[in-house]
Write a structure and sequence with these properties.
With 591 residues, this protein is α+β, with helices and mostly antiparallel strands. Helix content is 19%, strand content 31%. It has helices spanning 313-326, 340-349, 368-389, 418-437, 453-456, 477-495, 522-537, 579-588; strands spanning 11-14, 17-23, 42-46, 63-70, 80-85, 88-89, 91-96, 99-105, 111-114, 125-132, 166-167, 171-176, 181-191, 194-203, 209-217, 220-228, 232-239, 253-260, 266-274, 279-282, 285-288, 291-292, 295-299, 330-332, 352-356, 395-402, 443-447, 462-465, 499-503, 542-548, 553-554, 565-566. It is globular, with a radius of gyration of 24 Å. The structure holds beta-D-glucopyranuronic acid.
């Protein structure tokens, strides 16, 4: 799943823009061949959620059709012609010139369909994408089922963010050589002052031939010839006196893989940015390049007015500027994989990322066939996520779930309860899968209050979300911090692993002040965060603190969410700092 690239041998055209759009609430589109012609289309922006572009689609969760035309250049003859959709939430099916060419399930990862055999070389090629975001119990994240959503929320989600839908990331028209580089996997190791870049290359077809791996590191260039057998090759690039990638110095090299024909002419090339770095757990510490690292930062969301969950590059850039301003070096992609472009920016900016699959709202008291369906969805999304993101130096950990619970939210059960056992098998399976696919990074389950110890034990770095002083010990920040301290010590005594408080926060209405601090005031948010950060500072096994949340974000409507918003941001939804942002900046040494 290589990101689209334009070079001498490959082509990539962003075909996002103004597309035609029509909702299909009665599900008649396929029978009426809407893939050929939309009877009553309106214009929609791609990328972008459909929810806030029109009044009547805010809460729409059924099927909708997108259509456009592309002109495939004559010069692309002989190439494979592909369409890559950056993400479409939740399920997508694609037609080219009236023929269904592929589809995808899972709302936050890219997919590619091959349209070579359906291209109209003499005129426009018609594209249609049917996107559908029904909240079904068998999906990941799961729909709410007959029991309704969180505290009766509307739409009925099992999670605390708005179920935005549509084509959320750019769509590319791509041409690649018939035999092309299909996958490049890079891992890096450090040996004293020297670095080693291990490269694994696969071509789309079984092919025997020669190629080359080149690494450009500032003024230095390293060439390693490779022999490709059966479409597979490996190479190791030795980099003496390497400059390791880290938040303070996110130094990147450019690695290029080339394939050659019998005359030594390049037939395909793919380049990617590589940071030489290691990440590992040792005892109760997390080490980056062999040295203890502390993750200062946030849980985030992809969320902005009108764009919804659609990629907005200026917002992305602004967020990274604010991360630097506030002194953060890290975030978690709560609660789904983020856009490719977000990770590219983190590589360049030196932001450490915990990358998460959309496994949020999972319970284990559901019927076995429902759990089995979700497990399949989790496994597929984990495989796709790791394949997509494993070359990013910024990604330092995989999160296989956020706040799974055995029976229901905040209902503790014993480790031998059947739901706890079912959950341990499910989650343990995902952790093992992450380790097998990528032995170079730790993996974690981000845990809710009252999570069974058997589940905490699955994580390489124990990540817990805590709201003492908010949902419990309500209105009492000191008591909340005390509870946190006691629990961190108890878990550490049992497991001896590094720990991250992956969420802690207080809803705050900007401009609302109170002395002494009271809930929803800016003062309360500061006191709440201060209490938690003090607890962490006194415990060297706490290796990260992620405030919930970076910015206020949209949720379903419900009695807990005034204005359909979660107000735990330290920035407002339009990225203005609350008092807490200034507090964190002082505390974290922002610049
Ligand atoms: C945690 C969830 C997060 C919520 C947060 C909250 O992981 O998605 O937004 O609580 O309640 O339980 O603010």
């Amino acid at each position: 799943m290589l990101y689209p690239q334009q070079n001498r041998l490959r082509h990539a055209v962003d075909i996002s823009g103004l597309w035609r759009f029509q909702v299909d609430p009665d599900g008649v589109g396929e029978a009426q061949a809407w893939h050929d012609h939309l009877p009553a289309p309106r214009t929609i922006a791609v990328p972008g959620s459909w929810n806030e572009q029109f009044e009547d689609t805010r809460d729409y969760l059924g099927a909708a059709w997108y259509a456009t035309e592309v002109h495939v250049p004559a010069a692309w003859h002989g190439h494979r012609v592909l369409i890559r959709v950056g993400s479409a939430n939740y399920a997508a099916r694609v037609w080219a010139n009236g023929t269904e060419v592929g589809g995808h399930e899972g709302g936050h990862l890219p997919f590619v369909v091959d349209i070579t055999d359906h291209v109209n070389w003499d005129g426009p090629t018609r594209l249609a994408i049917r996107v559908e975001n029904e909240l079904l119990v068998t999906r990941v994240p799961p729909g709410a089922g007959p029991g309704g959503g969180m505290l009766g929320s509307f739409p009925a989600t099992t999670y605390d963010f708005f179920p935005y839908a549509g084509i959320h990331r750019p769509v590319h028209l791509i041409a690649v050589p018939a035999c092309h580089i299909d996958a490049v996997t890079v891992t890096t190791t450090l040996h004293g002052a020297d670095g080693r870049v291990h490269v694994d290359v696969r071509t789309n077809v079984s092919w025997d031939g020669v190629g080359e791996v080149t690494l450009v590191d500032g003024p230095r260039t390293f060439h390693v010839p490779v022999n490709i057998g059966g479409g597979h090759a490996t190479a190791v690039v030795e980099v003496p006196d390497a400059r390791p990638w880290c938040p303070e110095d996110p130094h990147l090299c450019t690695l290029t893989v080339r394939l050659f024909d019998g005359h030594g002419e390049a037939t395909d090339a793919y380049a990617l940015e590589v940071g030489i770095r290691t990440i590992e757990v040792q005892g109760d510490r997390l080490l980056l390049n062999g040295k203890p690292i502390f993750l200062k930062g946030f849980g985030k969301h992809e969320d902005f007015p009108i764009y919804g969950r659609g990629l907005a590059l200026p917002v992305l850039v602004r967020d990274h500027a604010l991360l630097r301003w506030v002194g953060a070096n890290s975030y978690r992609t709560a609660h789904y994989p983020y856009a490719d472009e977000a990770l590219q920016l983190c590589d360049r900016e030196g932001i450490l990322v915990i990358s998460e699959i959309p496994a949020v709202g999972l319970g284990f008291a559901d019927p076995p066939d429902v759990i089995a369906a979700r497990r399949e969805r989790c496994e597929a999304q984990l495989d796709e996520l790791i394949a997509r993101d494993r070359n990013h130096p910024s990604v330092v950990m995989w999160s296989v779930a956020n706040e799974p619970f055995p029976i229901s939210f905040l209902r503790p059960v014993a480790d031998d309860d059947p739901a706890a056992v079912a959950g341990a098998t499910f989650l343990g399976g995902l952790i093992d899968r992450a380790h097998a696919a990528d032995p170079s990074r730790p993996a974690t389950v981000v845990a809710l209050h009252d999570t069974p110890m058997s589940w905490l034990r699955l994580s390489d770095v124990v990540c817990i979300n805590r709201y003492y002083g908010w949902y419990m010990q309500t209105g009492q920040t000191a008591e909340g911090a005390g509870k946190l301290a006691a629990e961190l010590d108890a878990i550490h005594a049992e497991l001896g692993r590094p720990m991250i408080v992956a969420e802690f926060g207080a809803d705050t209405l900007p401009g609302h002040h109170a002395v002494p601090p009271e809930m929803f005031s800016e003062e309360y948010q500061v006191e709440f965060l201060r209490g938690y950060l003090d607890v962490a500072d006194a415990r060297p096994f706490v290796v990260g603190m992620h405030v919930w949340n970076f910015a206020d974000f949209k949720t379903a409507q419900g009695v807990m969410r005034p204005g359909g918003m979660n107000h735990k941001g330290v920035f407002t939804r339009d990225r203005r700092p609350k008092m807490a942002a200034h507090f964190l900046r002082d505390r974290w040494g922002g610049r």
